[in-house]
Write a structure and sequence with these properties.
It is a single chain. With 376 residues, the chain is of the alpha+beta class. Helix content is 29%, strand content 23%. The strands form three sheets. An eight-stranded antiparallel β-sheet has the order 11-10-7-8-9-12-14-13, sandwiched between helices. A hairpin with a 2-residue loop joins strand 7 (167-176) and strand 8 (179-187). Helix 2 (62-72) runs antiparallel to helix 3. It is globular and about 60 Å long. The chain starts with 9 loop residues before the first strand and ends with a helix.
Length: 376
């Protein structure tokens, strides 16, 4: 992604990387996003030779990267900007200046939760203020759910918000000086559906779709409320309600997860990670596409089954663009977050409707093969 800088890169990675000899420095740091080792080493190295950029594409590193930049006088996203995209309470307070959001509140105790439900009624969503991948989110649809939730350990980082009915869409963008790429998509199902056994997925809208235009305008209005860095990627999630309103779920200043980068490359030829990192380092990038794509793409990921299974080979459909098996997952793994998967498949089609039909068809085929091949 950064070949011009490779011999000047000091890389700290949570996952072991191959082909690292060309880097100025490389360290695999276990649990890197949670331990302060990289932060301390970067400061020590900077005493010998100052750095010109500190970049990350990991959501959990955004704030500490911003702290280091500010303390070292390095350009890039500020601490207050990073916090506004990481802390959902701060995010929603800021975004509510320009776009509709669900009503929300910070939870200091269970009394706050009961009071919120008393005022706004069920269902409600309880979530940590700084978490990703739909981790540790609870939907409380009635008193029985509330009682069940009361048996789980209380956390000090929770908020509550109204449950919003409707389909969930996402907008994925990279913005920088003289550069703008924005694409809209719809989740195949609710991201929270994975915790009730529903496979996860996403399918792209064509840019000329009227709803894609509305989503892009909503994205611009949302971002107008924030202090934004000179260059960054963004992932916005929006509810489209049954009465045709758009309501903010949340926005992050990073590349969308799961298969979103794969789908974006397939349709638009844009590498979200490389483009945002290169713009952050003031390196040239290819201009974004201007015309409509020839086709759009979608993906579906099969959830872990909680039991050993044998996965089928590549689905026998000509419109399957990519099929990948997750060979790093434990045989008895369970779903822990919205990106948990045994395998995923990417399909192509002329428009969103065709992609959706094909996703359901290939999902049905995969699930039938999975049922037939359960390990004994």
């Amino acid at each position: 992604m950064l070949p011009e800088l490779v011999d000047r890169l000091h890389v700290f990675s949570q996952h072991p990387l191959r082909n690292t000899k060309a880097f100025a420095r490389y360290e695999h740091v276990e649990n890197c996003e949670a331990v302060p080792y990289a932060e301390l080493m970067i400061r020590r190295l900077a005493r010998e030779k100052p750095f010109t950029r500190i970049v990350t594409d990991n959501e959990y590193d955004l704030e500490r990267a911003a702290r280091m930049r500010e303390s070292m006088g390095i350009p890039g996203q500020s601490v207050s900007s990073a916090l506004s995209f990481r802390d959902r309470m701060v995010m929603k307070r800021i975004a509510s200046r320009t776009v509709p959001t669900a009503r929300f509140a910070r939870l200091d105790s269970s009394v706050d939760l009961v009071d919120f439900i008393g005022e706004f009624a069920h269902p409600v969503v309880v979530k940590p203020v700084k978490q990703g991948g739909s981790r540790d989110i609870s939907v409380l649809r009635g008193e029985e759910d509330l009682l069940a939730f009361s048996r789980t350990p209380w956390r000090e980082d929770l908020m509550v918000e109204e449950f919003v009915e409707g389909q969930m869409y996402h907008v994925d963008a990279v913005l920088g000086e003289g550069y703008r790429f924005v694409a809209s998509s719809r989740y195949l199902r609710s991201c929270l559906g994975v915790f009730s056994g529903q496979n996860n997925g996403s399918l792209q809208l064509r840019p000329e779709d009227a709803l894609a235009g509305r989503l892009e305008e909503f994205f611009d209005r949302t971002l107008a409320a924030f202090d934004v860095p000179p260059a960054a990627a963004y992932h916005l999630e929006v509810f489209h309600t049954p009465d045709d309103r758009l309501v903010l779920c949340e926005i992050a200043s990073r590349v969308g997860g799961d298969r979103i980068p794969v789908l974006t490359r397939a349709t638009y030829g844009v590498d979200l990670h490389a483009t945002s990192l290169r713009l952050s380092c003031d390196l040239p990038v290819e201009p974004p596409p201007t015309g409509p794509p020839a086709e759009v793409h979608g993906s579906v990921s099969l959830l872990p089954q909680g039991r050993p299974v044998r996965l089928p080979g590549r689905p026998p459909f000509p419109w399957v663009s990519e099929y990948e098996v997750n060979d790093r997952i434990a045989p008895d793994a369970v779903t822990l977050h919205s990106a948990s998967h045994l395998c995923f498949v990417v399909v192509r089609g002329a428009d969103t409707a065709e992609v959706e039909r094909r996703l359901f068809a290939v999902e049905e085929w995969l699930m039938s093969q999975l049922d037939d091949q359960q390990a004994v």
